[in-house]
């Protein structure tokens, strides 16, 4: 049994959003301000403390609230949380049966609806007539006109995305349930992002968060009144031993205190006319661990206090203790379903520790019975170590003022099949999955992206971006924007569905890679002017090349490609593909080709210091140059050549000319 789907309506950014929860651990990722925290807050409000305010309603709902009148349909304005629960014949449905509305033994789903409803009649009666007073009244007082209800409802005809959803059309069919019934069914815990970990500077002033949470942990184990399901016999044997030891210590300290304070207390008793004043020991385990204990690390002879540990270690240790406390609560409550939300586990931790945490957290969570966990994160390192089936991506739908929660794995795999076909699509999706898991998960959090072919472009791109930024006047520099740069070789087309999925503006910098058929009827590299094909799969994909067997169509297409008269396919409105164009009298085939054509004289002046070259004497020429031939003759190691070009720019302040296809691409990317 598990919660298969969560649907949210009218709460902050989540106007109408649906989360697929079919995995035991779900990872919510997305850029800032896309509703990750709102999701956690809504569950907490509904499941632990129903405290809603005017600001909790989506912006699109607030205008209707402010103009509420007797005829307003307040059902459409309610904040909702819908839980779609799946079960099978093996599950114990004794508790769930309270939310099942028929006896159909073939059904495998039931639904729970939580609503923050508006008391329309009372609100209409009490609200000021108009203007700022009304708005202020709603901001300050609306919470007094809200009530939380719990319902079970039938899912025949259920469509959470439809304005005619069952729970709106058939209000008389909703069966109200008591909070006690929901508590038996579902237990919820959240570990917030703002955890009480402090730097060593703060800790030295008395803040020891690990000792503090250790105290909480001990209290949970030791305090039977915290949960009615626990009795004294449930306490662990070790706790009883600690308490017995403290009682014996109390007796010993009583004798010592009598010897020390006896004369003073006897005199004080006479003075105050009080008899038998005593100082008695009253050690308590939870107080003792809080005030007289500390967490240290190191070996037996050389230990350091917790505040000498880095914030990353403190955060992870804090998280592990909190998870252990949560486990205790889940086991004590014995609810049918359990949900745990952990916000931003990466706080204060370096990448390697994030990798370790991501690798082990699922294993830890899977040990907890009947638990579904949701982790929210901004960490590409945690994403890269997570199973793609677990990832849910939150993105804003601007024109709808809503946040969509996309199932990364299922929705993206479908896009790959649609764009690349049933045969190639799964192969490219597999490539993307492996590639992203290695190095490129930051795309989930980027505002823009640049895809480059190889080492040369990767090394020199920051230099080109810096040169672009120097020409700006009062605008945000491109180098300061949230841009992810990926080196993908000629595989940019494998990212096409992913770019469409994320909806981020993307620049693909690639080579035209023209080819011609040789005398052996094999395709080989050629000058652009002679080329009749391109070996670049990204160009043929993004510019929608016809079948090469249709020679007339393809011949027209390749000539239009050379002259930059083609547009990127309509599907990819946020993508620009930049490749070599004609500059002066020459059309380069590759980056090195284009760069040498623009900077030949400067390279010749520095030919002895520039690395990665061979046949340096060929750079000295006053004749008309065949740049294509020259590039092949003088370039030895591309990476060494690029590093030398970069060194001359940074160390000797030389300003190299940037090929126009790159500079124009950067200008396009810079635009909002």
TrEMBL record:
Residues 217-236 are annotated as: Disordered. Residues 22-398 form the AAA+ ATPase domain. InterPro entries: AAA+_ATPase, AAA_GajA/Old/RecF-like, Bact_Antivir_Def_Nuclease, P-loop_NTPase, TOPRIM_OLD. SMART domains: AAA. It comes from Parasedimentitalea maritima. It holds the Pfam family AAA_15. This is DUF2813 domain-containing protein.
